[in-house]
TrEMBL record:
Mg(2+) binds at D41, D131. Homotetramer. The lineage of its organism: Bacteria, Bacillati, Actinomycetota, Actinomycetes, Kitasatosporales. Its cofactor is Mg(2+). Gene3D superfamilies: HAD superfamily/HAD-like (3.40.50.1000). GO terms for molecular function: hydrolase activity, acting on ester bonds; metal ion binding; N-acylneuraminate cytidylyltransferase activity. InterPro entries: CMP-NeuNAc_synthase (IPR050793), HAD-like_sf (IPR036412), HAD_sf (IPR023214), KdsC_fam (IPR010023). This is 3-deoxy-D-manno-octulosonate 8-phosphate phosphatase. Keywords: Hydrolase, Magnesium, Metal-binding.
């Protein structure tokens, strides 16, 4: 993992079309091409950070289908994906199982230790996508730190790249598309092979 001082603090508005990878700084584009692991916070990244309760007191969450397809495409292309959340949530386990996520770490407040453990088995770069105080340590230590436009001020400051999408609204898909584009992966072919 990098100990850089965040040379690329870049907002993705110019890259919103996803394929406009040439609008990223050259070094950041090269870093995306070397990503082997994407670690995702859950609340505020995969969801809109809302928690709704059913009549019987069960927590409910809404996940974005485009984000889900982006995660599928990452996994299909050989990029490991991890869910790392400070909260323990059965609904997150269900979503992770639906997406075939092998690395699900819930109830983890010290996320950097978890990322270091996962990253110790890889030679490529690690991207961490977070939005709040729990995520800062991992964001600052990883090779690429990504966030959403509605993240906390601290998370925005720690991010190399900020999506114009809010949490749970397609930001993960955007990061997925940029990563796969940087690696030269044909996303359409992956979709036609959907199993």
């Amino acid at each position: 993992m990098s100990t850089s001082n965040r040379p690329y603090h870049h907002r993705l508005k110019d890259v919103a079309a996803r394929e406009n990878l040439d609008k990223l700084p050259a070094g950041l584009s090269a870093d995306f091409a070397e990503v082997e692991l994407i670690c995702l916070d859950v609340d505020g990244i995969l969801t809109d950070n809302s928690i709704t309760y059913s009549e019987n007191g069960r927590a409910l969450a809404t996940f974005n289908a485009r984000d889900g397809l982006g995660i599928y495409l990452l996994r299909k292309s050989g990029i490991a994906v991890a869910f790392i959340s400070a909260l323990e949530s059965p609904i997150v386990r269900v979503r992770a199982e639906e997406l075939g996520i092998d690395h699900v770490h819930l109830g983890i407040s010290r996320k950097l230790e978890c990322v270091n453990d996962l990253g110790s088995r890889l030679s490529g770069k690690i991207l961490f996508m977070g939005d709040d105080l729990w995520d800062l340590e991992a964001m600052r230590a990883c090779d690429i730190a990504a966030s959403v436009c509605d993240a906390t001020i601290e998370a925005l400051a720690a991010a190399d790249i900020i999506s114009p999408y809010k949490g749970g609204r397609g930001a993960v898909r955007q990061i997925s598309d940029i990563t796969l584009e940087a690696k030269g992966v044909n996303r359409q072919r992956l979709v036609t092979d959907y199993d």
